[in-house]
Write a structure and sequence with these properties.
Blueprint lengths: L2 E5 L4 H17 L2 E7 L11 H27 L6 E6 L3 H11 L4 E6 L13 H8 L4 E5 L9 E5 L7 H14 L2 E9 L5 H19 L4 E8 L2 H6 L1 H4 L4 E6 L4 H17 L4 E5 L10
Parallel strand pairs: 1-2, 1-4, 2-3, 4-5, 6-7, 6-9, 7-8, 9-10
Antiparallel strand pairs: 5-10
Helix pairs in contact: 3-4
């Protein structure tokens, strides 16, 4: 995790995300880009051109001061390299574009809390970035306090196409020498149980052959409701962080999986790592 991008709006949630990024960068030897998207005042109906330019210059200067104060508050005196960027584009598109153009390995963002599946984070910036980014996104819940993850649950769909995403999750876990537990939940259906067990066994064998001896464990869970069980997974399989793959979906999967991934960002109290299926493999240590 050499290059970490942290968008900030200076909220408490964004500060928690920055603190998490600082801890990860400290452990991995990475650097951080603290990023703020500033929409300039351009309306011709507000004051004169010169007044608007003065306002925008002052606003940008104020943002730079706030970024410096935040860096001093979180990382003052450390050796972690932290740079700042102020963009003038809409926040979602600018974050995605900056990440692609600057070889970013991980985007870390804070999320706001909510209650239940019906209060989805579809409209939030963090969810929108996580839903579109070709770069892994770590979402840090509003009330979470970042701590060294010792146990990472990888909620898997048992697909060999997830190989690159799995490699990324294992690379992240290696920073903390954490155990990754691949957990597959399937609906209780007598007609499908044997197939699920067989598929999981093949998937487990494939990952073990691909990644060799790693801190990778496996668990198959039968449940009446996959959606409810994954939201409450921490009660039966305690973990410090969850990882999920955001995949290119068929029409049927799009409704369920998109909402499930975003809902997890909403209801979980633990950090959530969302890795795109399309992530490209990088050399070890990259």
């Amino acid at each position: 995790m050499k290059n970490i991008l942290v968008p900030t709006d200076f909220s408490a949630a964004a500060e928690r995300a920055f603190r998490a990024a600082f801890e990860i960068a400290s452990q991995s030897g990475g650097n951080i880009t603290l990023y703020h998207s500033l929409i300039p005042l351009e309306s011709v109906f507000i004051e004169t051109d010169e007044k608007r330019r003065q306002y925008n210059r002052q606003t940008k200067a104020n943002v730079r001061k706030r970024m410096r104060r935040l860096i001093n508050k979180v990382a003052g005196g450390s050796e972690v390299e932290i740079s700042t960027v102020i963009s003038h584009l809409p926040v979602i598109s600018s974050v995605l574009e900056y990440g692609q153009d600057n070889d970013i390995d991980l985007i870390i963002m804070g999320t706001q809390g909510a209650s239940g599946l019906k209060k989805v984070v579809l409209g939030s910036i963090a969810a929108a970035v996580a839903g579109k980014s070709n770069i892994p996104v770590l979402l840090v819940p509003e009330n979470a306090v970042w701590q060294k993850p010792g146990h990472i649950v990888f909620a898997t769909g048992c697909r060999e196409a997830d190989e690159n995403a799995t490699a990324y999750i294992l690379q992240f876990a290696k920073i903390y020498r954490a155990t990754v537990e691949a957990v597959h939940l399937y609906k209780d259906d007598p007609d499908n149980t044997e197939k699920e067990k067989k598929d999981f066994t093949l998937y487990k064998s494939y990952l073990q052959k691909t990644f060799g001896k790693t801190n990778l464990k496996f668990r198959l869970i039968k449940t009446a409701s996959v959606k409810s069980s994954i939201e409450m997974l921490d009660t039966s399989v305690p973990y410090d962080m969850m990882a999920m793959v955001r995949r290119r979906k068929t029409l049927l999967e799009r409704f369920f999986l998109t909402n499930l991934t975003r809902n997890m960002a909403c209801v979980t109290s633990k950090p959530l790592l969302i890795v795109p299926e399309t992530i490209k493999s990088k050399k070890a240590g990259a």
